[in-house]
Amino acid sequence: MTLSDILYPVLALGGIGLVLGLGLGWAAKKLKSDENPLLGEVRGLLPGANCGGCGCAGCDAFAAALLDGSARPASCTVGGQACVTALCGLLGLPAETAERRSAFVRCGGCAAKSAARYAYSGLEDCGALARMPAGGPKLCSYGCLGGGSCRAACRFGAVTVADGLAAVDGEKCTACGRCVKACPKKIIAIVPREKKVKVACASQDAGKAVRVSCSVGCIGCKLCEKACKYGAIRVTGNLARIDYEKCAQCGECVKKCPGKCIAHLE
Fold first, then answer.
1. What is the value of pTM for the model shown?
2. Same domain, 104 and 190
3. Does 20 reside within a domain?
C-alpha cells in the first residue's frame, strides 16, 4: 500500500467533513436569526417539567406556541398562578387565572369492596394485568387494576396505591396527565380542583352486575339525576356523569346515592 492510497481517502473524508461543518454552521446561524428574541425569556418563566400537561411536547414547544398565539399562559398547569401572571405580563396579554385541576381515579373499588374473578400473583403492572384473561383479575372489567403504572408515571409523587386502588393527592397533582395516559382502563380523568363532588366509578355494566362485582359501584338508578335541581348530573350508559359547568356542589346527589359512589371528596 502506497502513501497515496492512505492520503487520498483521508483528504476526501476531511473535505466532506469540512463542507458538512460549514453547512451546519450556516444553518444554525440562519435559524438563530429567525428565532423570536422573547423565546428565551418565555422559556425561563416556565417550570421546566416538560410534562405535556399544556398539550405541547414540552416547555420549549409550549414557549414557541405562546409566542405564535396557539397556546394560552393558563394552559401551564404546573407553574401555577405566579407563572401565568408573569407570562401574561411579558407577552402583553390580558390577565388570566390558572384553573387548578387535578387527576381523579374514577373508581372506589378497593380489594375490600370489589370482588375478584380469580387470584393473581405476578408482575405488578397495569399493562400486564390488563392483558390477563377477562382484562384483569377484578370481576369489574372497568375497575382500577391497582398495578401502580399511574404511580410510576407521576413525577410529582401525587399518586399512591393501597389495597389494590390508586388515589391522587390533589395538593401534589399538577394535572400533567401522565397518569391518565398510563392507565390502560382509562379511568383517570383531569377535573377542576375546586369541584369536590365526584363519581368514583367508571362501570357501564347494568345495576345487577355491578351489585355482584362491587359494593360501591354505580348502579344507574338515577336517584342522583332526579335530586339535582341544576341538571348537572345525568345517567348515561348505566353511569352517573357530572357536568362541572353546571354543578353547584350542593351535595344532594351525594345524599341520594345508595351505593355511595358519589362523594364529596378532597
1. 0.76
2. yes
3. no
